[in-house]
Specification:
Length: 355
């Protein structure tokens, strides 16, 4: 090792924030291990590095004993006192030894390897710190490749991964495509930070509306809840904190420009914008749109409800394969049963007959 390596350590500390002392200690440990492995079976070697000029010295420690059993590890009390009369039994005597000629090359190689390793570790930690705690943040990245169902996205300093179950069903990803995603998880492993992304998470819809609708970004309009079946349909419930600002119109935008920009980003997925209401019966009725609702009866204790719709609106309220009512239930957090107007009348008549 030499002065150039020490200068490099100083630059490393400034640029990467890696402590010079930590790297020096790592180099010393690596050199000691290397010497023990390659040049001697004894384990009592240690290295001192001069932090001013980069020179190193190799020492062997020997314990002062009354009777020597291992000459590599021990020294007699009489021999120790010839070196210094202050030595007593149990003390450690340090002997400087001249390493073999190959050790200088090994020292330089080891120093460089440790420095490179510390640089990699620092960069990994920097990336992890940058992304950790940012779950649900929206990111724009470039599709790099697809492998075993996973899509790898270039985020600049690191690649993000979209697992198969976090992709929009039916969406095709091409290398070079720019896509928006949300972070779902940030993990740190021996291979470095792992940034898990999603195109299917409801938070993507939330973040896209925040980007497209200034009133949401500014807090004038708030998103109460979102229910999503990615690739097919989303319901989003909003309300306005300003009576002069109409929430649905603001979210849709002039000639539908705002909501259409979001729809284009998520492969033409349908979006229903619903008005949130503190009255659960009103909110449930709104959530079942576009179906017309005659009335809703809600049981607060059971958090269940029954919605009555015109006969010709029953299939619309339920939706294809039950999707409309299923999303409405997710959006409101209520169990929703739907019956037609004629079914309600029949139920009422049966009740009267029983009486």
């Amino acid at each position: 090792m030499n002065k150039e390596i020490l200068d490099a350590l100083s630059e490393l500390e400034k640029e990467k924030g890696i402590s010079r002392d930590i790297v020096l200690e790592a180099i010393k440990t690596a050199l000691e291990t290397g010497y023990k492995k390659n040049f001697g079976k004894a384990t009592n070697f240690n290295i001192d590095i001069d932090e001013e000029n980069g020179e190193y010295k190799l020492f062997q420690d020997k314990k002062v004993v009354e009777k020597i059993e291992d000459h590599n590890q021990e020294i007699s009390l009489d021999d120790a006192k010839e070196i210094d009369s202050k030595y007593e039994l149990g003390d450690i005597v340090k002997f400087e030894i001249k390493p073999k000629k190959d050790f200088g090359r090994i020292a330089a190689q080891t120093a460089r390897q440790v420095i490179l390793q510390k640089i990699r570790e620092a960069e990994r930690e920097s990336i992890f710190s940058e992304f950790y705690g940012r779950e649900s943040d929206i990111l724009t990245g470039v599709v790099q490749r697809e492998n075993r169902g996973n899509v790898y996205v270039d985020l600049g300093k690191v690649e993000g991964i979209i697992n198969a179950n976090e992709q929009i069903p039916g969406e095709v990803y091409h290398q070079g495509d720019r896509i928006k995603t949300v972070i779902t998880e940030v993990k740190n492993s021996s291979k470095g930070p792992s940034i898990m992304l999603s195109r299917a998470h409801p938070n993507l819809i939330k973040r896209l509306f925040e980007l497209e609708v200034p009133e949401i970004h500014d807090g004038i309009i708030e998103i109460h809840s979102i229910a999503r079946e990615a690739g097919s349909r989303t319901k989003i419930a909003v309300f306005s904190n300003d009576t002069n600002v109409e929430p649905i119109g603001s979210c849709v935008g002039n000639k539908g420009t705002r909501v259409n920009n979001i729809i284009d980003e998520i492969c033409q997925e349908k979006i229903d914008i619903i008005i949130y209401d503190k009255d659960p019966e009103v909110f449930i009725a709104n959530s079942l749109g576009p179906a017309k609702i005659i009335k809703v009866t809600a049981d607060v204790n059971e958090k269940s409800s029954v919605a009555v719709v015109p006969d010709n609106q029953l299939s619309l309220a339920i939706g294809k394969e039950g999707q409309n009512v299923r999303l409405a239930a997710k959006l409101t957090g209520w169990k929703i049963d739907i019956i037609s107007e004629s079914q309600e009348k029949e139920k009422e008549n049966n009740t009267l007959e029983e009486l």
